[in-house]
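sorry for the late reply, my laptop died twice this morning and i had to redo everyting from scratch. anyway the thing you sent over, i finally got around to it. pasting the sequence first so we're on the same page, its 343 residues, then the predicted structure underneath. double check i copied it right bc i was rushing
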Amino acid sequence: MPFKPVSIRGTRREIGAALGKLARPIMDAYFDQSPTWKALRPWRGHAYLDALAQAAQLRVPAVWQELEGLAEGLRMAPADVLLWHCRGDLLHKTTDGCTSIAWRDAEGVRWIAHNEDGDPWLYGRCHVVDVQPDDAPGFLSFYYPGSLPGHTFGANRAGLVQTINNLRTRQRHAGVPRMLLARAVLDCATLPDALALLRDAPRAGGFHHLLGSAHDQRLYGVEATPAACSVAEIGRGYVHANHMVHGGAARQPQIITESSRARQSQAERLMDGWGGNASGADLIALLHDTDGALPILRRAADDPDGENTLATACFRMDGGQVELAIYDRQSEPVQRLTLPAGP
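ok and here's the structure:
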């Protein structure tokens, strides 16, 4: 069954090793065709990577243990695994896209939905993992081969939901690599815990985090960059593609691709047409919209950002639990999962 969760349990290092073993069969072929890996290789041995490693070991030591285990499972040099996880912190433009939306319906049910856009070569080669560490709530997440989960879409057993969008910032500051920080969010028990982590940790790169919870009526969009952490509490609805849109974003240097601009504009237009009534089906219809030369659902072989939609997720948060439906470019889900969320 597509996206049937792969169960992974144990210590942090054991979890990393299992993730690495899961990805190992395709990593050589993945890297051989990846322009991102080619662009990263000149950074091998750079002292700046040592600074990022030190920040990660200090701020998110448990996640660092997973990274060490991942290198073991992949049978790769730990320095290369770290380099791969720093791709968005080192390169201003990578093949990571995504569109996220949040909605609060008339009954107070919270919805978060997300298109996971990435390297087209990965279509059909990714997994969903059910990770249960010994010392944290555990979570479900989409898993890119060879990258710790968390920088895509996921939810943990404390009821926290997170989706991630790439921000192409033109800044580099020594800090925690953005992918490791996103993974650490899935260890948080509450929305305030997640916001505090994103605000307080030094950030090496830029991500947009869309956050919700089964135990909290609030929804948040967070633009976390090396220079600032902008937190927006969401009212009824909210859309985010791959560039900063919060107040003050114009003062931060960034790359805005034509695809990101088009998806942001079209998603806002479609959401404006909902009025006060929408449900999960409407969120999926929005994310599967194919209007225009640069549509929200991305399937073109000549996509200008080198990205295609690999999966679509829709989270429903209500009654102390999280329901997740995963779609494969079709109107009906290929997987439905319920995550009972502890307090």
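The mean pLDDT is 95.
thats about all i looked at so far, will dig more tmrw
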